[in-house]
Write a structure and sequence with these properties.
CATH superfamily of the largest domain: Spore Coat Polysaccharide Biosynthesis Protein SpsA, Chain A
CATH topology of the largest domain: Spore Coat Polysaccharide Biosynthesis Protein SpsA, Chain A
Helix content: 40-55%
CATH class of the largest domain: Alpha Beta
Number of domains: 2
CATH architecture of the largest domain: Alpha-Beta Complex
Strand content: 15-25%
Low-confidence stretches: none
Distance between the termini: 50 Å
Order of helices and strands: EEHEHEHEEHEEHEHHEHHHHH
Length: about 325
């Protein structure tokens, strides 16, 4: 691993950017990042083994802006890249945008001002999906589901967010107090897709002051090159669904560890079953019969069927779960 460092003044915010083959979208992203109205920030670009020239572009940006640090490492995934950035970050707050998205000019000024004004551990905003093909734009959280909040404790904020049924556990919609992350020793799990889900959950369980603004300040691009939006079938789908089985397991473990420390709202166990049910839904969409049977086997061997039963809450989720359990047991006998 190599690091090229540029000197910078004390940063109000550390912006950690995992970079892997972002292509031309990286240029658009950097234009939006360097165009931020907030100037007192350090930018840590972790080049995670890019092979498309993105790393070289990052170094050229660093030569022209003293706020930018570039760290080159062998490819080991977004979790490792974020952890690498966390190890060297010096800002009061930290954030993790994706290198193929776009930031509204006032994104970080708004969030940092919120955080400093109210002494927040976490400040979060709304965002939008931008569908590259159709150019359609859709808010991540509709205002009729969630409006701007007052200062809330982390568990209460998470309950409100999950209750919208539109909340995404993504780290790029917020800024986070760096000292709290280090106090908790909270790192991203290497090799786990959607590792934001357990990470944000455990962090919020420890947050004393959080606030959300409904203002849309982040654009999330939906395109086929994104790992999260690729269509998978066969063995690739089997491997992908195993990540969700692990996430359900991680969430249940987090709930167990904190059940005597915080108020355990119903939305927290509901989320466990919700993530596991997403694996069930994938079975119906899987065209390969061998892959379907493998996913079903994984659900039972991992104990996920019992995990869903332990965590299901409410008539609607129980109804959905019972339907799926009936199908799973029937399919298992084939």
């Amino acid at each position: 691993m190599t690091m090229i460092t540029s000197s910078s003044a004390t940063a109000r915010l550390s912006v950690i950017v995992p970079l892997y083959n972002a292509g031309e979208m990286f240029v658009n992203f950097m234009a939006s990042l360097l165009g931020q109205s907030l100037q007192e920030m350090e930018i840590i670009i972790v080049n995670d083994g890019s092979t498309d020239g993105s790393g070289a572009k990052a170094h050229r940006y660093a030569k022209n802006d003293p706020r930018i640090t570039v760290i080159d490492q062998e490819n080991c995934g977004v979790s490792c890249a974020r952890n690498t950035g966390l190890a060297v970050a010096k800002g009061n707050y930290v954030t993790f945008p994706d290198a193929d998205d776009w930031l509204y000019p006032t994104l970080y000024q708004t969030l940092v001002d919120m955080a400093e004004q109210d002494e927040l551990d976490v400040a979060q905003c709304n965002g939008e999906r931008y569908f590259v093909g159709s150019k359609r734009i859709k808010p991540l959280i509709p205002v009729d589901r969630l409006t701007s909040t007052e200062v809330l404790e982390g568990p209460l904020w998470l309950r409100k967010a999950l209750a919208t049924k539109r909340y995404l556990h993504v780290v790029w919609l917020g800024i986070y107090r760096l000292t709290l992350i280090r106090q908790l020793g909270l790192l991203f799990e290497p090799g786990l897709h959607h590792q934001d889900i357990p990470w944000t959950t455990e962090l919020m369980f420890n947050v004393r002051r959080a606030r959300y603004t409904q203002e849309i300040l982040y654009r999330y691009y939906i395109h086929n090159r994104s790992i999260s939006n690729q269509k998978r079938t066969g063995l690739k789908n089997v491997e992908y669904q195993r990540h969700y089985l692990r996430i359900a397991e991680r969430l249940e473990d987090i709930n167990r560890r904190y059940r005597n420390k915080i108020k355990m709202y119903p939305q927290f166990p509901i989320q466990v079953t919700h993530e596991a049910l997403s694996v069930c839904h994938s079975i119906r969409r899987e065209p390969d019969p061998v892959a379907r049977q493998t996913i079903i086997k994984d659900i039972f061997t991992s104990g996920t069927h019992k995990r869903m039963i332990r965590n299901a809450r409410g008539i609607q989720q129980w109804y959905q779960l019972l339907l799926w359990l009936r199908r799973l047991y029937a399919w298992r006998q084939r």
